[in-house]
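Team,

Forwarding the record for the chain on the shared tracking sheet. I've put the sequence and predicted structure together so nobody has to dig through attachments.
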Amino acid sequence: MKTFKNVLLVALFFVTATVLGQTKITGTVVDEMGEPLPGANVVVKGTTNGSATDFDGKFILNASSNSGAVVVSFVGYTNKEVSFSGASDLGTIALQPSNTLDEIVIIGKGVIDLAGGRKTPVAVSTIKAAEIQKKIGTQDVTMALVNTPSIYVAGQSGGFGDSRISVRGFDQTNTAFLLNGQPINGMEDGKMYWSNWSGVNDIASAIQIQRGLGASKLAISSVGGTMNFVTKTTDKKEGGYFYAGTANDNYYKVSAVYNTGMSESGWGTSVMLSHWQGDGYFDGTKGQGQTYFISVGYKPNEKHNFNFLLTGAPQWHDQNFSKSIQTYLDKGKKYNNNWGTYNGEYMTERRNFYHKPVLNLNWDYKISEVSSLSTVLYASFGRGGGTGNRGSRERTADGLIDYDAIYANNAAAGGIGMFGNDTYITRSSVNNHAWYGLVSNFEHDINDNLKFNIGADIRTYYGTHFRQVADFHGLNSWTEDRDLKDNTHTRVGPTVAVTATESFGTNPWSAMFNAAGEDQRIDYDSSERITYGGVFTQLEYSNDNMSAFFQGAISNQQHQRFDRYDYLPEYEDSKKVDNLGYNLKAGLGFKTSERGSLYFNGGYYSRQPYHDNIFNSFDNSINPSSQNEDITGLEMGYSFKSEFFSYNVNLYNTIWKNRVEAVSIFNSGVLTTTEKTGQSQYHKGVEFDFVAKPLQQLDLRGFLSLGDWTYSGSVVTRTLDEDRNVTGASTVVDVDGGKVGDAAQFTFGLGFDYSITDDLSIDSDYRFYDKLYANVGATKENLELPSYGLLDAGISYKLRLGEGSKSLDFRANVNNVLDTEYISELRTNNPVGAGTTNTYKGIDTSNQGYFGMGTTWNFSVRYNF
């Protein structure tokens, strides 16, 4: 009996010691709106000791140590780490949804206008810097969006920076792209050239894509959606990092970042420099570039906040153009015939080179507790272009460019080159511009529930386009004849000879300051001035259970063209063309339960035609059929959030009338462009995405999108050659019921991220594409490409170096792990007919297009300090 009592006393002692040795931790977990999050996980960091919040978001947790940290998580929200010391009430812990930007320092919030600052929900996906840096590797920044619904990226096969992105079946000329609220689509044609924005990978804090009508108040008419690149601003803390990465095909990249932190006087600076280069996955697609980023912040007091930003990404990259499937089958999937050798040294005919510095000054002014003003003043200066052949090209037996023969022919001509004889030069098609603008937004809280915005969007743009000699290849001069036009746009003479004796290389840095004078320009020389002025307003009402908004914008564009090459001096200036446009949007959102919410949005756009659609004959004549495009959009969506599973469902219907479209294709080295006017398109579909957390260490995600995108009625078509001459008569073509191409109408994806330890994780994503049609514009019988799926995988490891934030981050990615062979896009739609002799996966091999990339890899290490 005595022995039993002793054992009982010892056991009681250990139980009491254990209980007394535990630290009691309490708190309440809420969402971004302050509502309780029942079922949120609260775990002591580095252990499996955890608890879950009750219906009111409260938790009680006993920790075995006296100090440490707890990790709070809830599916669809960003994890939050909170330190404790001794028995603690951690108070209210607010989690932010994982697709918002609330924890990121943003300058010019009123201008940037991100979803998340709005109560009314929209179809939105946000990718933050950590995710971009982890998975982007050597790819274009567009690839950061591939694991989101209704997004398709094509064009990577062209070379570094040549990718294109489609949103809900609309190409990137119909998606608004913004840099900190600054519009960056080309003002002439709405196009995006991602090679000019390669540095976004390094400088972005986040990328947010708002599909469809979106949340933007600006006077922009985006049909597919709005993509906002939010750059880093001046960091509040001192620190930085060094980065080094390598990849397949001799690619490497180095970067350095340093932040001074904010001084007591309110000043701070952040600087980033990087360099990259590589041979390219496909033959003859070498590339090289740099990125610079300087951000200077100044906060004199609580009312004013200023930030100046300068960034640019000078680059050059060699290009691959589409070829027949049969050519790839005969010569290899990486075959490219835009290059050759001279005396054994590599030389290319097709090189893109560009330098586009961007400057902006942001000012945030807190006028009072209920009023604020955000303004961004910006400028950009683009310099560069792309090279190509002019004159008689020679090719080797393998189809490559025979520069040895070209030099011999030029020497035989006595060094005197002339358009039309047996001589050859490499020319540059130069596209220079200067762009200035201002966006300003005033916001006022009328009361706790009602908010009012009004603002202005003003831009002016002057672009210049001409050709110059890039390489004479042994010639001393190059001469061309031109006949001048009168005010009726008819060539009346006199014939004028132009002789170029100077050449200009393809270095993007020197292109900023060195270009051909007017007396050295060949083939064409024109400019345009585009001025844009718009005002916008928004009224938004919200309470605990519902929200509603109305937005309106009106804008005027003025266009004028100047042609110094093809017109008599007195007729160089075109008439001025003014176009008025507007858009209206409204929406309603409300809670259906504690975890569910529903929204409805609708909008109408009257969008002005692009400059190139007004002067689409490449002369000063005005296209009589150019008119505003009419877009009507309807959307609805439902969101659900729980402790283990959250999802979003969106339905959309977009009707687009009076559209103008141009599709270009290279065939046997010749560029042909087909313009189609009077189009009507109908895009409808459903999107679904989810995140789940079945285990504390495991995150699952997935998406599905199903679209039905078709043409309606008939269109007027005409064809232009590479020298911008109209070839053949215009025709009327029936396209009713034809499928919209260049983007998969069915996409599906699944992915996971598993933390093996706090510092080691693995992740993988699988994407499947189907209902992908050829990129040939409006047509009744479009060609469907074979469906395909891609698997990517990666591993991350963090080596912590003592106290603080010092660490070494290691990352490895393998894209297209299974080396899947697939056609990524086609530029023709030749059907398999009775006379077809060769096919590939059911496709006539005479079709022009690209194969996608096989397995690629990249590895990087980053030192944080």
